[in-house]
Structures are given as C-alpha cells and as structure tokens.
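Archive entry: two folds, one per protein. Generate the first.
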Amino acid sequence: MPRIFFFFLLLLLLPQLLFSQLQKKYEKKEYQIQRITDAPKIDGILDDSTWKDISVATDFVMVDPGDGDPSPATHPTEVKLAYDDEAIYVAAAMYDNEPHRIRREFAQRDNLPIADFFIVDFNTYNDGENQTRFILTAAGTLADAKMKGQNEDYSYNVVWEGMVSIDEKGWYAEMKIPYSALRFPEKEEQLWSMQLARKINHRNETYVWNYIDKSVGKLTHYNGLLKGITNIDPPVRLSFYPYVSGEVENYDGDTQTAFNAGMDLKYGINEAFTLDATLIPDFGQTAYDEVELNLGPFEQTFGENRAFFTEGTELFTKGDLFYSRRIGDTPTGFNEAQDAKLENEEIIDNPEKTDLLNALKISGRTEGGLGIGFFNAITETQKARYRNRTTGETRELVTEPFTNYNIFVLDQQFDQKSSISLINTNVTREGHFRDGNVTGFLFDIFNKNSSFNFAGEAKMSNVNLPAQNLTGFASTLEFSRTKGKFRYGVKHDFANETYNINDLGLLFFNNYNNFYWETSYRIFEPSGIFNDYNIQLFGNHQRRYDPDVGVTTNFGASFFGMTTQRFAFGGNLNYSTPFKDFFEPRRENRFIEYPENWYVQGWISSDYRKRFAVDSRLGYNSYLGTDHGQLNFSFSPRFRVNNRFLLVYSFEYMQENNRDSFVELLPQNIVFGNRDRESIENSLQGTYNFSTNDALNLSFRNFWSAANFTQGEFSSLQQNGKLTPYSYEVDEENDPNAHFNIWNLDLSYQWRFAPGSEMILLYRNSIFNLDDQSHLLYTESLENLFQQPGRHNLSLRIVYYLDYNRIRSII
C-alpha cells in the first residue's frame, strides 16, 4: 500500500517538478554589479583586492552544440563585474582540468582564430536588439563588434583594455571597458541587459550565462539583466586620432612622393549620442579591390575598405539605401570626358577618383529606444583637362561637381525585439547636374512569443535631372515563422520602372514584381553524427511590372550539415524555367530568352582546429537543349604552421561554353555572339604574429580571364527574344574578344604600439593588362603580363590615439 501511495504521489509531483525546472531554465538571470573605489590593474591576474568581495556570475549552460546542458564540473566559469565613474571592469575565470589543451592561437585584433575565448555582451538600452560585444581570446587577442539579432559587425572599433593569463587550473581574462566605448541613456539608474559566454575549442562547446532558446527568435532576445549602475558621472567622451603618412611610388620609370596629415575625432555629445568626423581623410592603405573582367550589363561592385564608412554605420545601412563606395567613386562624367574631346585635342588629365574633403556622422539612441542618425560627406569638384595640339591652349570640363551627401535616420525599438524606421538619403550636386533623394519606411515586428515575424519596406525615390524629374516606388513585404525546427516564410518584392537609388545606394535593376517562398527543417541539439543540420526548400516567381511579363520561375533545395567532428558539408539543387533576360541586350524593353536550366553545387569544409584544413566547392549549370554550360570549382587549403603562423591558399576556376552573349548595339540591330569564357584566380594570405599587437601580413592575388567569340556565329536579336543568323564583320576596332590579367601583392607590417594607436608599413606591387589577346593560354598570359610596367608603392602611416581626459590631466 505505501508503495502505491508513493507511486501516485510521484505521478502528481513529477509534472510540477518538471515545470519548475523548465521555468527556472527560461528565467532571466540577474547580476547586481558593485561600485568600486580602487580600479583593478588590468593584467589578467585576478589577485587584486578589488575582486575579493564581488559577487560571482556562474552556472553557465550550453548553447552549442547542445541546448541548456549545465557546464561540466571540470570546466566551470566564474565572472565578476564592477564599475566606477570611468568604466566597467570584468574578471573571468575559465577553469579547465586539461589546461594543456586550451587553444591559444595568435591573431590580430578582430580576427578570431581557432582559440578559446570569453565574451561579454552589453545591451545598454535593454531593447533586445542592439548590443555591443567584447571578446578576449586565451592568447590575448581583442575583438569588438556591434550586434543586431544574429549579425556581428566587426568593423566597429573602440578603445578598451584586456589581458589574459594561464595556470594549471585554467585561463583568466580581465577587461576594462570605458564608458567612452558605450552609449547609454542619461538617467540616474541604469538597467542594462547582459550576456556572458565562453568557447571551449578543444571540446567544440560554447556555454552562456543566461539560457538561449535557439529554436525561438534571435540570440539578442535572451540576455540576463545587469542592475546596480547608479549615479555615474562619466568623463568627457572626446578623443582624437591624428595621423601622418608618406609614400613613394614608381610606375614605368616615373617616381612620385606624397605626404599627408589629418585627423579623425570622436566626441560624446552626451552619454547616448556620439559625433564621428574625419578631417582630410587618407585612404591610401586600404585593401585592393578584387577587380575582375566584367562583361555583364551591371557595374562591378566592391566591398568597403575605408574604416570610417564601416564603423558605427548600422543605422545608416537600414533599407539598403547606402552604398558607401558612391562617395569618392569614379566621377559621373568620367566616360563622357572622352567623347567630349575635340578634333585637335588630347586629354592631359581625367581623374579616376573623386576626392573626399571631409565626412561626419552623429548617431545614438534615446532612453525611449529612439535611434537617431545623421551622416554627411562632401566631395571636391573634379575636372578633365584638355590641350589643343595646334595652339597649346587648355580647357577644363567638370566631370563631377562639388557634391553633398546626406543621410537621416529615425529607428524606434519597442517590445525588446521589434522596430519601425524612417530613413532619407539625399545627394545634391552643385550646378545643373543630377540630384537624388530617397525616403524609406521600414518595419520589423515580432509577435509576443517571437514565433512569427512580419517585416516590410516602402521606399520612394526622386531623381532631379536637368530636363525632368523621375519619381519611383519600391516595396517589400515578408512573413515568416521564427520558432521551432520547422519554419517557413513568404515574401513579395516590387519596384516600378522609375525607381532609382543609385546616387547614394546600389540598384542593379528595377521594374520587377517578384514572389518568394521557403520552408526549412533544422535541429538545435546533436542528433546521431550531426551537431547541426538544416534542410531547405525554396522557390520564386519573377515578373516584370510594366509590361506585366513573366520572367522565370525557380525551384530549389539545399542542405547544410555539421558533424560532431566539425566536418561541414552541403549543397543545393536548383531548376529554372526559361528566363527572359531584359538586361543583356543593353536596350530598353528588349530581352533575350535563355532556355530552362538546372544548377547543382556541393561543398565541404573540414575542421579548422586541425593544422591542415580544406574548403572546396564544385558547381555545374546546364541549359537544357543547348551546349551552353558553366563549371565552377574552388579549392582552398589552409595550414597552421604553429600558433603564430598561418597560410591560406585559394584556387578558383570557371569555364563557360557556348553562351549567347551581347556584342554590340547597332542602330537597327542588337548583335549577339557565341562566347566561351575561362577564368583562373590564385590567391595567398599569410600572417605571422609576433604578438597579438604586431604582425607581418602577406596578401597576393592573380586573376586571369579570357573571353572568345566564335567567328562567323553572330546573331541578331529579334523582338520575341530569339536569335537569327547575322553577318557581322570583326576588325581591330570592334573585336569583342577580351583578355584580362591582374596581379596584386601587399606586404605589410602592422604594430599597435598603444591602445588605439598603430603604425603600418606597407609595400605594394601591382600589374594590370587588358587587351583582345584572348587566344593566349594562362601561362602565356602571365609571360605577357610581366612585360607590362609594374606599379611599386611603399607607404608608412602612423595613427596616435589621444584621449581628452588624459591630455587635460597632464596639462
């Protein structure tokens, strides 16, 4: 009888016990931070008396690959936090019963190698969206990023301190994060949210302080609370980054020198808003652009390498209306300058870049969660110069007038996960030139339990031309399930034929009315041999808006998998119905119809923890009923010589055969030809880290491509998108064949000699060749390339960080 009684009692209590454990698992943790009077020495050794009576954040739980499993007794984590009027201080002890297995690979700032690391995230507005991430690896590498949802932006850089140490019990991290590195509301008592995390690389495990339910919402929705910061009186947030730079360049026997000096500055208008400005900017040491042979109808685009346009720009990139490379780009009248040359004239100067005079941005967020951003940049007038061969007289033609670029953003966060935004971009050019204005309204709404998301955009553009104004409209509506293993979503994209954002944004084409859908199944805990996998089915139907014409319909499937041994692999398969290409003909409202096609691709990526690892990808695209096909292959091995030295080689190959491609526009005809194309790219990245503050870096890239048109197989494009044979004579003036080869090599030494300060010594070597010698093989092309004059550049740049408060204390 007693046994039956206890059995039924257990049945009654078990659900309550399980519910209690589940409730505890999802409950937000709280940490009560303490004010201190004596700041600890930031040396990575946690023996300061400051830390003795500080409360501990512990009981970390697994976020990857598992779901909420407690830290093993062999690997506990203990974190302490304190504050004063200058900064937040963090001390973390990462215990490990096998300290010899702690991964300590060296790297430079913001480059996370295969190493153990500690993370602290602060969301100073507790809005579930915007937070700042600080990372310290077991080797002492610092990294910082702005986070929004799942996305990390490591272009964000602030000045803070971090040091580490290691002993027989594990490793330790100590941080000082000044208030100058954070933005927070101006009020007596702060309520921040916080997440702490630890990566144990040799176990392939990540643990967090506050539990994260990966099956619902975003990572930033799962912070714990940081309480107790009161009555802080932060110092003036004003810092200067003066620089000097010099360079020597030799090209084709001509040597030139240059010297530059300027300054960036940051000023905290108040605790929430910051002004960033660059005065007389110098971008001479930015990474080279990966230029390719561009035979398509769209401009080639490049990533942004200028720090000012990547740091703290998360507000300005909303709605995808800001393509920062427009600022300082090739003058809008660069190509027209050649056509404007008179009969007896020669061009003696036609600038390829527009000079940036200065730029500034102001951004921040109010206590009520309203983000406000203002961006302004000014570029100088550029002129082409001509000389009359007979009289010697010169004249000038403005190719880019004095131009003002502006962005204004309002972004209201609410419910700790949703937002609505208003953004306006404006470009005003002096004189009778083109101006542009774009306004966008955006929303991103989650329901109460984060299981569904509804997002959308409505954008209107207005282009002022000397003869007319063009107003356009575009919109996006998207609905998706964001909870559980099984997810789905639908989306609609629309733009009319006059929508144009290209004065400050990037738009390849308009006049579309497209529909998308996708569904997926994923796991959040290890299953069999997999730590993670995701299966996705997707499709879309694309149409022109005016006239209403179907363009194509696509169906596809993809797979991603990561095994317990950290071997990743996957691929995708896609089928497309016949495709009406309205852009390849280069004439408005004309199209060429390509037949239905299928595409298959597979890839692998081995375990980066091993000294040798490899990434590889193979894809093939076939157009049914024709000989048109394209093969893509890439192979990238990486070898970690030791904890300081890493080499990564990449090889990419592309071969396309029998493609019907644009050749020339004639008054009565659009000429197409049958084209074969082949490309090879070799690149090498090497880094030797003397420490986490100085390194020698090698970056090399060689890209070759040749395009050959079959002689006698030219066609004329008909109104129905079909091709008919056409007699087209090729000579030296109109040869469509193309041969392209470029070589870039950068060798640099970078030394961060003080917080926020650095010196970079850079040597560059580049060679470039573009002609019609498409019959040359790759090896023959290299021989031909080295006959071209090379450009050699040696430059030195020194930036020194000056904090106003330290200057004032010295004075």
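Generate the second and append.
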Amino acid sequence: MTDPARSSTSPARFGLTDPRSGDHLRDAGWWDDRGPTGGVDPVLSALARSPDPDLALLGVDRLRASLGGRWPELDAALRADEVVRGRLLAVLGSSTALSDFLAANPDRWRALAGTDPVDPASFVPALVRVVGADDPVRELKLEYRALLCRIAAEDLAHVVEPELPYVPYDDVAGLLSDLAVAALHAALEVARTRVPRADECRLAVIAMGKCGARELNYVSDVDVVFVAEGDTGVATRLASTLMQVAGKACFEVDAALRPEGKAGALVRTLDGHASYYRRWARTWEFQALLKARPVVGDAELGQRYLEVVRPLVWTAAEREDFVPDVQAMRRRVEQHVPVGLEERELKLGRGGLRDVEFAVQLLQLVHGRGDEELRIQATTQALAALGRGGYVGRADAADFGRAYRFLRTLEHRLQLQKLLRTHLFPAEGDEAALRWLARASGLHAEGGQSEAQVLLAEFRKRANQVRRLHEKLFYRPLLQAVANVPTEALRLTTGEAVNRLAALGYTAPDGALRHIEALTKGMSRRARIQGALLPVLLDQLATTPDPDGGLLSYRKVSEALAETPWYLRLLRDEGAVVDRLAALLGSSRLVPDLLVRAPEVLRLLADTEALLGRDPMTVGNPLRSTVSRHHDLERAVTAARSLRRHELLRVACADLLGLATLRTVCVSLSEVWVAVLEASLDAVVRAAGEPRARIAVIGMGRLGGRELGYGSDADVVFVCEAIDGASDSEAVRYANGVVERVRRLLSAPSQDPALQVDADLRPEGRQGPLVRTLESYRAYYAQWGELWESQALLRARVIAGDDELGARFVAMIDPVRYPEGGLDSGQAREIRRIKARVEAERLPRGADPSTHTKLGRGGLADVEWTVQLLQLRHAAEVPALRTPSTVRGLRAAQEAGLVSAEDAEVLRESWVLATRARNAVVLVKGKPGDQLPTVGRDLAAVAAVMGHAPDDAGEFLDSYRRATRRARGVVERVFYGS
C-alpha cells in the first residue's frame, strides 16, 4: 500500500518535511494541486539530493522574495542549467550563513553560473578594487563573502548534481588560502590609505599555520608574522591597521606566533627576528615556522626572512629534548579538550587533525634535515613525500592522507553551516545533524544503513586509523639519536647518539651505532628506507631482552637479504612485520640463523593466520607433495630440507610471538620431521631401483608421542620384510642400504638444525643390527627383550614406509609393552632402579638438578617415567592408557583412578612448563640444551619467551622451581612409592 506522504502529489517524496514546503513550491511555480508543474522535475530531484532539502527550499523562497520581478530569470536557470542548479541548491542546503548572504544580495546568484572553475588569479583584483570605495571595509566584506560563496558552490555542487566535477579537498583548501591572501593584500592596501607616511617603511606579511601551508578552512584565524625595515613605528601602525580591516571584513588575523607571542613586539626587523630565533625560540616555534610563507607586502624582504629562518627550522631537531618537547606539546593540546568531547573534537581530540599534523611535522623536522624533498608546507603533500622517501609506509601514508582529508572535509562542512569556527562532530544521538553532515559530505545510505550510520561508521574508522598511525609514527621513532642517512650527514654528534642508545638500554651503544651507520651508508633508496625503519626498530628492540644482539641480527639479516627486492618494501609497508621482527631478533638466535635461508617466512609475519598455519596434524602434507615431484634424489632431499627449514622457522616465530599453543608446536615439529623422513625414504627407494623389501619406520620417544621439541633427535626403529621371492638376508641387506643412505643424506653437514636419525632404541642398542625383519623382532622380544625395551616401546607408532607392515609390527609389540597382568613388584623395582641410575649417571657434571629441564627434579624424565610405569602396570586392563602421548596417558591414569586429579594436574603443569622451557632455551641460544640459564641476558630472554617481563627473570626461575618441586613430590609418592 502506498504511503500517502510519499505519493507523487506529496512534497515528502523529495525529502521535504517542513509543513510550509508545499506553499514554497507553489510560490516558486513548481507545484500545483496535481503535483510538480511541467519542467521542474530536475529541480525537485536536485532539491531532494541537497544536504537539507527543507533548508534549500527555504533559501530559494527567500531568494524569490528578494528578487521580486527578477525571479523568472533564476527560475529559468534552475530549470535549464545543471551548474546553477547544483551550485545554488548545494549552498542553500548546506549553509544558513551563505543563504542569508544570497538573500541579502540576491543578484549574486549570477556568479554561480558558467562552467569555468574558480580562478584564484581573479581574487586580488576583485578585492583590491574596493580600496577607493566610500566604505572599503564594507565592500571588502561583501566581495570576500561573494567569493567564499563561489568556492563553496563549486566545492559542494557534485553532492546535488553528481555529474558536476568533484573538487578535491586539497584544491578547496588551496582556494580558501589564496582568497585569504587576497584579502590580506586588500586589507594592506586599505591600511596604506589610512596610515600616514606608510611609504617610509617596508613591511612583509608572513603567513603561518594553515594559510602558510595553503590548507585553510572556511572559517579560521589567519596566522601571520610581520617583518619590517625602515620606520618600525609606522610599520607597526600599518600592520595593526591591516589586522583591524581584515578582522572587520573577512577573518581574525592572529599574530600570536610572533617572537615572544602576544607579549612581544607586533613588528620586528629582520635582524630582530634572527636574533630571537637563534637565542630564545622554543621548540614549538620552529615547528610553527615549518609553514611560514611570505604572502603580502615586500616580496624581497619576505624572501630574506625565509632565508634567515629556514636553516634554523632544519637544525631544530638537534636541540636537546626536541622530540620529547614536541610530543609533550601534543599531549598538552589534547588535555585542553573539554571532558566528554574527546571523541567528537575533530581538531584537537584523539584521532583528530592535530594527530596527523603533529606526526607529519615531527617526521619532517627530523628527516627533512637530510632530505630536502620533505621541506614542504602542506600536510597532505608532506605526507606523500614521506611515503615516497620511505619514511612512512605507502599504505600508512595513503591511509593517513585519506583520513586527514575526510576529517578536514567534515570540518569544512560543519563550518560552512553557520560560518562559525567549529570542530565539533555531532553527538551520536543527533540524527538530523548526522544525516545533514553525511549528505553534505557526499555519503549515502547503503547496505541497510542510514546516512547517519554510514557517517558514524566512517568517522570512527578514520579517527581510529589516525590515532593508530599517530601513535605508531609519533611516539615510537628514535628520531634524534640515530638519524637517517650516512655518518657524515648525521646532525647529532656521535657522543649524543651513543648517549641516547645507552638510555634506551643498549649495553654497547658504540657497536650499535656502527651497525646503524653500516645500514644507512650511502644515498641509495635502500639506505633511506633503512634510515626510516631503524628509529622504529631500535625503539622496539629496546623492549626486548637483548637489544644489542637483536640489532646485530637485524644487520646480518639485512645484509644477507640486500638483493631480495621485497625485503625492505615489506618492512616499510607492513608495520606489524617490523614490530614482530624486532621481538623475534631481540629474543632468539635460532630465528635469524634460519631467516637468512628461509626469508619467505618474513611475509607470514604480516598475516597471523598464515603464520599460525594449518592443522598441525597435516603440516607435513605440502612437504610430501613437493618432494614427490622431484625425480633426482639429491634435489628431492634438498627440497625436503628446505621445506623443513621453512616450517621450523614458521613454528618458531609463531611460538615466540605467543600465537601457538604447546601442542601445536610439538605436533607441528613432529609431523614435519615425519614428513621429511617419509619423503626422503620414498626418494631413496625410488632411486634404488627394483625393491627387495618392504620397509616401515617406527617412531619412538618424543617423535612417537608427537612431543618433539626444537632440539630433539628423531628416535626410530626400522623393520623390513622380503618381497618378490627375496630371502630375509637379501631383504635386510637391501633395507640396510636404503636406511643408511637416508640417514647419511639427512645428517649431511648443514647450517640448519641437525636432522639426526637416532636408532639406539632398537634391540641390543647400538650393538644390534640397524634393520630387522618383523619375525626377527618377534623372536628377539620373546626371548631376549628387556624391561627397558618394553618401556621404550610404549611410545612406538608407525610414521613412514609400508603402513601395513608397520601395523603388524605394532600389533606384535602390544603384548610386550602392555604385558598381561602388568608388572610384578620385582619388575617395578627394576624400573625404579634404572631411573635412579639414569638420574645419577646421565645428569651432566655441574648441572643444577633444580633447573635441568630433562633430568632435573620434577623435570620431563620424572613425569614421563611416572606415566610409563603406570602404563606398564595397568595398560592391559585400561585401554585408554595405550597412548604414546605423555599428557593423554596422564589424563587416562587420572580418569582410571590411578592418580588423583590434584597429582595429575601437578605433573601435567610441570611437564608442560619443562617442555616449554626446554624449547625456549633452544630458541634463545640457537642450539639444543636442557639446562636453564640462571643469570644474564639468556635468562632474561628465556623468561620473556615464557611470558615473563625481561626484568622479572628471577620470578620465572622461582616459579619454575616451585612447579618442579611440587612435581617431584608427586613422583616420590607415585613412582617411587615413598
């Protein structure tokens, strides 16, 4: 059913809600009792697209009344000319102040006609011609407001008539700045007619702030500084009169940025300015001078002023505490925002315009010392230059620029409404204001969201973007201590740089400075990008346990990957990669060693999901698939080692960054090892020709339990079976040849962590044959098997080779490892005796039993032997105990009532802690080790990997000892029966 209010005969269908709208339409001749009159559909459609159709129609009605008999001319133009229609209805629907202006000066609508864009060259002639008028101030105000209306009309027209050209924010801000300069020019000319002896001085007006940068708002103070020669008294009167004229006619002229601010002289000579800036100026004054631009008055004097102050601007970053001063100033500005308005204040609040401007200016002031391409006044242009130079990532520069332009556009629209200086975003509940602002900004309802909702979402997105990038760029960089570019171009002395590095926590700042100099040497793009990256990286490394080692590793990685085209581009464009890389390099010696040989993993640091990887149970599948495509044996094994290196590094990175669980780490490492072994075995078998035996590889120990760590060997046994009429001796000889070749290939010297295939758990240990037939194993275990071998078989599972043969092997050993009736008291005593001997004989001399992760008190061996004793005694009756996993075996023992829930949790906690700590030692030191460090940076790094603050390493050791001491108490009761 049709809504009567939206019917073709109702003004409501054009967005008009004012009860008077029908009368206004009739008075304009656009409506009768049947609806729209002929030829006005384009007008009403455009009216509906206006930011506020009711306001626009009211403005039309006021213009009609003011024009009287001249109304038909405007009526015809609105019906026929989309340029007039778009510009006028956009202005009337956006600004009550400009609507008032047009109502008071109705013939000014003609200035909105024509397709030519606004010509800034016409501003000065249009305004200066008022000088000879009877009331030049009044005439200047009128002409200024007319030109402002013309700029606004071109700025807004595309909102109403989408086919009309869109004028970018930068162009609008430039036009507004040019108009302000023209107004200053006219005001100075008026002042010259009012100040006696004006020709006895030279006066230059220097635009500062937004006017200096050509990024002025619709309503803004115009910041200036005056410099004079000759009679400074006359110059002062001239400057003061200029300010009065411009203030009454156009805008407030603010000279508070002059030396000593409002307490200082309004006008100074060039020497006076130079003396002040060299001796007394504060940091913020040099920041303000970034945007200084001579605009009016004596051009030669203005240029000399620039030549004096510009060198001082580009050495300001050498000042003591320069960066903290700028940062503190931004915090003070933010603190002036009224409580409750922090999220709505477009200019000063969090995520506001000042966040962008301060960040850009700080980066300019620091890096612009050595790069003249950064010496740009406009914020958006400077940001683009920072992106081109590598000082800001391309994506960050683009996001920052888009967000800044969006917020400035909102600011422009808000100020246009009443031509008042405001920066306050509408309150969330003010639907009407939000809808108007959205439409005035060119946003439309979409995806079921209203214009107000679309605006709110976009505003929050952009404000959050600005705040994130501001904090990233403004607070992180070490911008003074180690500048960009080479040593000879550094503005800071070596001593100052060393002091700053030392303050950050670098214990060898001289060495750190040498690394920095090596990385930034020369004028290449690579050196420039390194110069932009290093401040962030140095700051990040300072938060790690070993900043010096991290920086050395970064230099080694950078030099190794110097010819990798995407390396620095990735670091520059992906902020998360730099953060994560710093955390990795400052904590681990394993990661940088692997990184230079598997640099592709760096890309994964930008993508958490990719870094964490797939299901750990399937992590080896791509490796098997890739290796199977290689027919050459050497290439196949090389590919297997390469893919293992990639996965090892990926897992290590995810682990160090706290993204992977212990199960994910252990299962991934185990399955990668299995895939390497399986792929290598398949490759050797293919290369060996006609097979004489089936071969199965049985995983033992941690590999069998999927509990492998970074430094673990691969414990295996090999079983074979003759095929195609071969004898057992031929089968064993063939299998031995294959297995030996696999072991030799995998254990070949390499810079990667060792691929050690350990078969010592086979029958008779190292003295026994490397490979046996299935029947040989059966006979051995039946006649000669020892208790320790039954215990070792508890973790056996098929991992490679012939699955069917492996399954028969497992079925054959089940009665051996899960003995019917369990263990008698003598066998249990023997297990305990062996364990005690291992503790006494295998713990390295000098090792601390309280911190040895494998053989120490409450460590891995204690927990694992306890679980294995329970399995040997009860697995025949409790099927759930038949698992190679220590954690699952412990859980099954608890569920079967063999250990209490409290004891099981103590053992599980200790095993998990010891496993993680053992892995952390390898990650930190880059080589296998079971002993926790107890002092120094290695301890701090291990503690950090374990989730403790680097300065809280002592607490980590204490917590480790507490957990393992509790576990040892459980072991004494459950394992030893004490």
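Annotation attached to the second fold: The chain has five domains: 4-167, 314-475, 477-586, 605-817, 823-974. The CA atoms of residues 130 and 139 lie 6 Å apart.
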